[in-house]
Specification:
This protein is mainly α. It is 93% helix and 0% strand. The longest helix is centred in the middle third of the chain and has 40 residues.
């Protein structure tokens, strides 16, 4: 493999991991908001 191919693969891998992490954090935020709403309703 050439250096260019290695850099391309690493860049694509970084983008993929970043995208997955953003979706996970967004989902966790939505879960926390939902739990917060439920607690407020019970109080």
């Amino acid at each position: 493999m050439t250096i260019r191919n290695i850099v391309t693969v690493l860049a694509l891998g970084t983008v993929a991991v970043t995208t997955v992490a953003c979706n996970t954090v967004e989902g966790a935020g939505e879960d926390l908001q939902s739990a917060s709403r439920e607690v407020k309703e019970e109080i």
